[in-house]
Amino acid sequence: MNKLKIAVIGCGNISIMHLEAIVALEESELVAVCDVKSDRAEQTAQKYSVKAYTNYKQMFECEELDAVHLCLPHYLHIPVAIDAFEAGIHVLSEKPMSIKYEDAVRAVEAAEHYGLKYGVIFQCRYNTPSMLVKRRVCDGSLGAVKCGRTTLTWYRPDYYYDDSDWKGTWDKEGGGVVIDQAIHSIDLANWIIDSEPVEIQSSLHSRNHKCMIVEDSAEGLIKYENGALLSFYAMNNYLTDEPIEIRLLCENGKAVFSYDKAVIEYNDGRVEKVNNMPQKIVSYSGGKDYWGTQHAVQIRQFYRSVVGFEKLEISGREALKTQNIVCQIYKNNDTNVGMSQ
Fold it and tell me: Which of 93, 62, 65, 61 is nearest to 77 (CA)?
């Protein structure tokens, strides 16, 4: 199989999770990187011995690309994705798809119109604990989810936002702790519940960050068509990043899991435990611990779908489910935070 020719657009912090995977996987060849900050583009290009660009449209014209990875500020995901589809290029985007649901729908429709693959990164679905709980719900061992809760207590100091020209803004990031941090745990719970949300309630607050107007605290309730209830709580004022926790009460037992481990207690007294055992595809030389190493697993699955070996598992159409929930959390909140959106 000829290697897919790949470029990365956006050379910020998260890009290393993509770059290291691209150069390690046998399915892909990194040929170019792009960033509007020329020094960052050049530095990354030199590290990986590829071409540097500051204009992605010029890169589309000059390179024969099969796919691009989008590691951009949230508000740029959709316009760049659509430009790539119009150029005949497959797209793998970092989460979230967008800051507005209707824009995410446009991108999905564009990909489908051009017959191109559109993947969205939710790498935590590939963690061993997440996969075990999903499997036990699907195979009937746990039965359907009756209710659940997600909890995230992390820390983002003021300088996290001060050092960025887009973090902590409505027009560029699209929100705060929900769209940037809690989106993964909400996605995992929603993926496992696997039903249509019929009502979403939320309260959002900016409690401790004077340098931004988006929320640093959020809680709410999601009601599903199948009767399941999901409560969520998230905040980034805790001074450290505690492990996220998802609890699911099911027909035949309960599951408690994080990114690192899962414990399932069945009603008949059986207990099933597992620790995260990530696939050793890439030895990442950077990144944050809570990102894990499963980017490489999802990236390889995306490539295999591009060449027709597998069905794309986390497509744009699939990611719309979580995008809708996140956008409804902001739209339906009962405080003034985000009402100007």
Answer: 93
In this structure, which amino acid lies at residue 41? A
Question: CB–CB of 104/111 below 8 Å?
Answer: no
Residues in the chain: 341
In a 13 Å sphere around the CA of 306, the CA atoms on its Cβ side amount to: 25
How many degrees, rounded to 5, is the angle at CA 313 between CA 309 and CA 319? 145
CA distance 327 to 129: 27
Q: Which residue has the tokens 């509007």?
A: 36
Beta bridge partners of 272: 264
Q: What does the alpha-carbon distance between residue 116 and residue 135 come to, in Å, rounded to a whole number?
A: 29
**Neighbour count for residue 71 (Cβ, 10 Å):** 25
- Spatial CA neighbour of 44 closest among 8, 90, 96, 2: 8
DSSP 130-181: HHHHHHHHHTSSS-SEEEEEEEEE-B--HHHHHT-SSTT-TTTT--SHIIII
Q: Is-cis flag, bond preceding 79, omega within 30? A: no
State both tokens at 88.
Answer: 């005949």
> What would the two tokens of residue 230 be?
């999901």
The neighbour count for residue 311, using CB atoms within 10 Å, is 9
| Residues sharing a CB contact under 8 Å with residue 157, sequence separation 6 or more, in sequence order | none
Stated pTM of the model? 0.95
10-residue mean pLDDT series, the chain (341 residues): 94 95 96 98 98 98 98 98 98 98 98 98 97 98 98 95 93 97 98 98 94 94 98 97 97 97 98 92 73 89 98 98 98 74 44
